[in-house]
Specification:
By secondary structure, the chain is an alpha+beta fold. The chain is built from ten helices and twelve strands. The strands form four sheets. Strands 6, 7, 8, 9 and 10 form a five-stranded mixed beta sheet that branches. It has a three-stranded antiparallel beta sheet with strand order 3-2-5. A two-stranded antiparallel ribbon has the order 1-4. Strand 11 and strand 12 form a beta hairpin. It is rod-shaped.
Length: 385
């Protein structure tokens, strides 16, 4: 060790501790060794790693503070902005990094959204999933003038979604208020144009046609925009709110129509009842006619059959047969006269077989001559036979 160093340590060493040169030299040597060890304490592993730990801490603090990443969820797309310029390729669901200060990523909701136009008070609309924008919006009912200038309020519900492929260009052109500029303005314009063609009284009757016309024209108006930034799902007409006077007038007209309908129904019912009774009477008359016709046909058939029988009988009669019958009848007369001399016999004119009638109660003063004359007349052949 150099002499100047030994002198330095000798001066630092306490006086009571110097027992001799050799021993002092030895202590000095030991003291030099200890000083060398103490002086090398700055070169330990911890002291060497300290700068790196500080650097990592700074980086972690900066990473947490600036957050140079974002997560895009399903149903969303990310729009990366490089120093104020929008990249036209959207970022899909997943983890994406960017350079703080120079870049940023804007998440945009591409789910189906709903915008309502109504004066009815409901709960809070929207979702807190992202916080950047909700999925539901509520606007006041659309006030329009009908064909005569009366005020009418229209309640609508429109479902739509942002087109994911053109989302960067849409946000770049229309901004974050694209719904107001695209959907709201087009819907109000179309509703005023369509409803203004009708009177307030016609609106309830033409509801279906009006709803269809509004949906078609809103879709056409939105689809005409460059790149079709929005896809419309449906446009639903919910309520047509008419002025109170028009409502009362329509109600009176409806009541009158119902009364007319009821009267027509009663008239139709009476007509049906009359027709039913007429059909029943017609059926009765037809039944009587058929019965009478049947009875007449029966009589006619019996008469025809009797005529046929009489014709057959007349054809079978001969002079000899008639004479034989007369002889038989005359024999019966003679037998009757034997029993009752007071019998009165009536002969059929023209020489036919006589009818005999025996009157047992005739007067007893009838003369025998009259009876004999009658008998003699019967015995005489008639008509030259």
């Amino acid at each position: 060790m150099p002499a100047d160093m030994n002198d330095y340590f000798k001066k630092k060493k306490p006086s009571g501790s110097n027992n001799g040169n050799n021993k002092g030299n030895g202590n000095n040597g030991g003291g030099l060794k200890m000083n060398n060890t103490g002086g090398g304490g700055g070169n330990t592993p911890l002291s060497k790693a300290m700068p790196w730990l500080i650097t990592l801490g700074v980086i972690a603090f900066a990473f947490i503070s600036f957050k140079p990443f974002t997560i895009i969820n399903s149903g969303e797309v990310g729009i990366k902005v490089n120093t104020g310029k929008f990249e036209q390729t959207p970022l899909h669901a997943g983890l994406h990094f960017f350079i703080p200060v120079l870049q940023k990523i804007i998440p945009v909701n591409t789910r189906i959204r709903l915008i309502t136009y109504s004066d009815l008070s409901t709960g809070e609309l929207g979702d807190d999933y992202r916080g950047f924008e909700g999925g539901l919006r509520r606007n006041p009912a659309i006030t329009v003038l009908d064909k005569r200038g009366l005020t009418v309020n229209i309640d609508l519900a429109v479902q739509y979604r942002l087109k994911a492929e053109s989302a960067p260009a849409t946000i770049e052109k229309w901004g974050s208020s694209w719904e107001e500029k695209i959907i709201n303005s087009k819907v109000r314009e179309v509703v005023r144009d369509v409803v203004g063609q009708y009177t307030a009284e016609q609106l309830p009757e033409m509801r279906n046609q009006i709803a269809a016309a509004i949906e078609v024209k809103v879709k056409e108006s939105v689809d005409m925009l460059p790149n079709k930034p929005v896809i419309l799902t449906s446009v639903e007409l919910r309520t047509i709110n008419l002025p109170p006077k028009i409502k009362d007038q329509i109600e009176r007209v409806q009541i009158a129509k119902q009364d007319v309908t009821i009267a027509e129904q009663q008239k139709e019912r009476s007509k049906q009842e009359a027709l039913t009774k007429a059909e029943i009477a017609k059926g009765e008359a037809e039944r009587n006619r058929i019965e009478a016709q049947g009875e007449a046909d029966k009589i006619r058939i019996e008469a025809e059959e009797q005529a046929k029988a009489n014709k057959l009988i007349s054809q079978s009669l001969t002079a000899q047969l008639i004479e034989l019958e007369q002889i038989k009848t005359q024999g019966k007369f003679n037998e009757a006269l034997k029993v009752n001399r007071n019998a009165q016999i009536f002969l059929t004119p023209g020489g036919a077989v006589p009818n005999i009638w025996v009157d047992s109660k005739s007067k007893s003063n009838n003369s025998k001559t009259e009876t004999e004359n009658i008998v003699s007349r019967m015995e005489t052949p008639q008509n030259g036979n």
